[in-house]
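User: I've been going back and forth on whether these two constructs are worth ordering. Before I decide, could you fold them both?

Assistant: Sure. I'll take them in the order you sent them. The first construct and its structure tokens:
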Amino acid sequence: MLVQEEYVEVHALRRRGWSISAIARHLGRDRKTVRAYLSGERMPGERAIDESDPFEPFEAYVRQRLSDDPHVWASALFDEVVALGYAQSYPTLVRKIRHRGLRPSCGACAGTRGGAAAIIDHPPGEECQWDWTELRDTPWGSRAFVLVGVLSHSGRFRAWVTPGQDQPHLVEGIDEVLRRLGGTPRRWRMCSDGHRDNTGHRPYPTVVRGSSETLRSGSGSVPTVSSSTQKGVVEKAIHYISQRWWRTVTVTSLGQAQDSLDEFCVSVGDSRRRGEVTVGELADSESLLELPPVAYPAEGTLERKVAANGLVSVWGNRYSVPPGVIDTQVTVRWRLGDATIDMVSESGRLVATHRKAPRGLGRVVRLPEHTAALENVVLAAFTTKRPCKPKPNRPPTEAARAIAAGIRGETLATEPVIDLGVYQRHVEAQTRRRRS
């Protein structure tokens, strides 16, 4: 809508020979708007009403989503409103959000950006970049970490959600990510001062020093430690995963998060455009080295407390132990590639060995001997004898009433004490008076 001053200026510029496009650029208006005011279809101060705007039914939803989260990406909103029935294009949605001022500003994020950045050439199949990202506020209540691996040439990424950053979890994550990528490039680029794990150590140099010979002999890759400014491809992938997937995903467990992330990497991540082709098509043309048939045998431990029902929670499933270690700490030992996990008591005694269930399925794995032993303990402790009467009348005792009287500053009234010696002395005095 043009105000009166703009309406006068439009006609004045038109009389001077300005084109409609030049007037529109000068005023920052759309050409159709300028043409409508010049032709008399619209008048200043009167807003045009478009009753058939397809965005109107979705404006309240978009406004609420952006109010709840000012940083949610428009592409994520586009997927949500399309699922609700929105039929227009993504550029139209972005234009509606911008013109209607639906996205509020975030003052907390205002800051300076910039700085020098190097551009590194990435030949096909040559390099994979690695880095961690942390998920602090998870719906299942405990922190989680995501190891992201990206093929530097094509930008294809895969990720592994894990509860820890220690070396066994890192080696497991590298193996899982590479098998999802379909192989390994010739070089791995890792951060020299990356995130510390929960033991205070930096995990990347640990793996490079302790496991590089085995990994190199099995896959032919050479790990390369570099500064954080030389791995912008994985940083961008982490930003994309965080904003495009994690910010809007609905999951309730670590297993569901992994399944959802795997589906996202394939359906959304690989469908991104890179010129005339997609990321998936570009990545399929990269020649990757074959992976060893089995994973590097890293060993890990987890500390867990045994619940009252004799179960130990590990990776979204629960495993049984003998009832003798209930309410104590046990150590869960596992080796990458093995199909079993071991439970060790505080004294170092092996108390149970279980076959690993797929992560995050919520399964309860009980051994028959543990079930029988727990039933015997419960039945032995069961009794029908009540420890005391369930509905007795027990008013405050004399001692309790005396303490209460002292608190109130009162003297507790007591019953008179009868002393028979007084009566005996009175009878003896009366007898002596009669004799005298």
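The second construct, handled the same way:
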Amino acid sequence: MRKTNRYNMEQLSDAVAMLRKGGLVAVPTETVYGLAADAENSAAIWTLFEVKQREREKAFSILVTGMDMVERYCENIPPVAYALAEKYWPGPLTMILEDKGVVSALVNDEGDTLGVRCPDHPMTQSILQEADVALAAPSANPSDLPSPKTAQEVLDYFDGHIEGIVDGGPCAMGVESTIVDLTGDEPVILREGGIPAQELLDFIREHQA
């Protein structure tokens, strides 16, 4: 059993240090709590799969500070991705882009695409900026159980099994991000979440015209 630390606003550097050491730290977003690991650390990603009891074939998306960080991890980024980021980030939008091969191959099952999202929560933004690395951060629940909206719900799932949790209060939105795949000829909505699918498609068509 691990000791699961509970971090507040003044202890974010401790959370960053734990992530840098390869630990798992749950972090708040505007949608649900995510279970974060250093996206470039294969050992940490492997532990993430084990703790979440998740099939290896299911890819993780990554949390980033913005498009500057996306450029470190993705290539052949279409112009519409920058327009979407300007309008919807930070916020509940995950974009699927072409992977550059910088994250651990475990993150996307050695695939050639990568999901990226910039979360709208000041504590998690601070962690990302200080860590200066993308975080693989699926929802902080065992597979097939409800996504947690409070730190206590995360603890109920994982106390003693993860290194820490950043307590950012209840998540404002409580639903997952909308996922749009931008790697093909036409955008494809893979999951509707915090942003209505039709609104997103209308915006993309407007900016691709």
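Notes on the second construct follow. The chain has a mean pLDDT of 94. The longest helix spans residues 197-208.
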